[in-house]
Fold 3-isopropylmalate dehydrogenase.
Amino acid sequence: AQPAKLLVLPGDGIGPEVMREVGRVISWLEKNRGIAFEITEDLVGGASLAEYGEPIRNEVIEKARAADAVLFGSVGDPRWGHVGFDKRPEVAILKLRQELELFANLRPAKVFDALVDASTLKPDVVRGLDIMIVRETVGGIYFGDPRGIETLPDGTRRGINTEVYTTPEIERVARVAFEMARKRSGHVCSVEKCNVMESGLLWKEVVTDLHAREFSDVKLTHMLADNCAMQLVRNPRQFDVIVTGNLFGDILSDLASMLTGSLGMLPSATLGAVRADGKCAALYEPIHGSAPDIAGQGIANPIAQILSFAMLLRYSLNLQDEAKMVEEAVSRVLESGLRTADIMSEGMARVGTSVMGEAIVREL
Amino acid sequence: AQPAKLLVLPGDGIGPEVMREVGRVISWLEKNRGIAFEITEDLVGGASLAEYGEPIRNEVIEKARAADAVLFGSVGDPRWGHVGFDKRPEVAILKLRQELELFANLRPAKVFDALVDASTLKPDVVRGLDIMIVRETVGGIYFGDPRGIETLPDGTRRGINTEVYTTPEIERVARVAFEMARKRSGHVCSVEKCNVMESGLLWKEVVTDLHAREFSDVKLTHMLADNCAMQLVRNPRQFDVIVTGNLFGDILSDLASMLTGSLGMLPSATLGAVRADGKCAALYEPIHGSAPDIAGQGIANPIAQILSFAMLLRYSLNLQDEAKMVEEAVSRVLESGLRTADIMSEGMARVGTSVMGEAIVREL
Ligand SMILES: CC(C)[C@H](C(=O)O)[C@@H](O)C(=O)O
Ligand SMILES: CC(C)[C@H](C(=O)O)[C@@H](O)C(=O)O
């Protein structure tokens, strides 16, 4: 078999140190499961700005295109707060999404039984929580034109952004959500602000039509974004799959993941259209950011990054067994009582990034 | 003294029944405090659609302009889901905000000691919570042009909305937030998505400049909207005043109010520019919606509507003592153990809308 071609982009902050622990898992799989990987690593975000003066090089985008999958760390660094809007570290992830047409960001918010007390919500409200947010990631107000800041003749400045969604853009992401729901609890909740935004009205209509045409076995409900934020706090277990646009998805998925109390545990996948070679472009990254405040201290939780790699094994390499092995190793390590600082609780054993990584490999 | 001219707009769903309880408070103030009110009542939302075929008449907007303050119930009714975008009940509140230039929506999220257990968050996380969200309400993506749904030559449909903010629009609402913070804990957190939206970048710059020029005694911090949603769940007591745009404010203020677990308790005020007569237009409404599922059953909580009226006394009529009397009467009724269904807990006495209203008047 061909080796699996991965592009690894650790990025900024804690990215490199949590990515190092994935390296251990990869070595283990090579040695013990005979899986061949061909790994290329490169710089993105602040790290790329420092070296090359831009947040991501075209060369890196071409490497991403050629890879079977991209494993991404995180970008963002306050030291680059002064660079222009086009040069900020975040451009790296935005460009990757757009250039590879990675339109469906899958963000699970799942409460691990061992960590139910980590949440700021009452255990009864979040126990067993398992939500999948499907967020559109190449359209909406993130990318619409016109955009920018202009100065009017009288000196007033105007900032402008445009939210645009077209029928096919809405359909393809809704399709991912409906298919996802079929493998889960069979319920999709579509979220917009159709009472104030026409783009939300179109969103609702297109999702409703697609549902009637192809997915009437799935239960479909609709919710306004403000109400969804409330319902996520009031009774989050009412949700199975939530599908929504880029901006609402950004906010609601972060909210949902914080309900679990353990951001350092949550992976995500962003999938693209099926390519000529029959595969689909895909990028895997933890939900958490670059956490510059704790970077370099060896205390970051590597689990979200390792579980992102498990998602990669499952979705991009079709290695179901190996994905499961990694996920179960993580569960067992948690059950054994090891905790990084972010998920520490009384009576548990506090460990650093590399001890956690080693323990997971030992469980494998 | 001139009588205070109020326009009362009960609206849809539970609006009329909770507004009736405010009527009792008004009567009490007339009889016992010698305050003269001149009250006009009219229809808005679904109620106006049923009678006049439009969600709000120009005549009602003119009455609102002529009044010292507007006391609003709530609009929204699933029976009007089929009417066109321009006719939906929500247009009533959107038009009032825009026509009267009600640009600063003040939404407190406050946890009452007696109700700390009503939250889905752990008591330790929310006890003493007291946030004021200042939301811009006449600009942003709610009102920007171009907007609408268009069909392209190939049949594809496109939904479009435009987010626009100008320097003066940002400045005036930020000023309200800074002034508010001076009377509270002296901290403003300004929220946008400046890492993906230029309108957010301008927002941040304008707030920063105004702060440096006029409010350097207040502490100013900045936060991205996705992070703010997370921080509201993780540690909501880090906030004092939050200032943000129309769309983020819609979502984040609903989220913040749900942290309290008692939406039926929370009032809001929306203030406009100072007018020629030295007064400023103002509208007061509960945070909760029209709750059509429980309308007409006499079980809705009237407290948010009554506290909205207390805000009206304070901000529009400068009746500080009377505002305080009403607020304290509400606190005492809660301490005495009376609860409507939405805030019911073990060992308390469950009552309906009018018993709650009567009890508050008795405490006065
Ligand atoms: C880094 C930033 C541009 C990004 C976004 O807003 O999409 C991040 O918040 C995310 O959710 O992946
Ligand atoms: C009714 C609706 C148009 C309104 C809004 O979105 O502003 C409501 O949700 C609010 O927050 O007051």
Notes: Residues 130-259 of chain B form a domain with the Isopropylmalate Dehydrogenase fold (CATH 3.40.718.10). Chain B has a mean pLDDT of 95. Chain B touches chain A through 60 residues (CB under 8 Å). Residues 15-33 of chain B form the longest helix (19 residues).
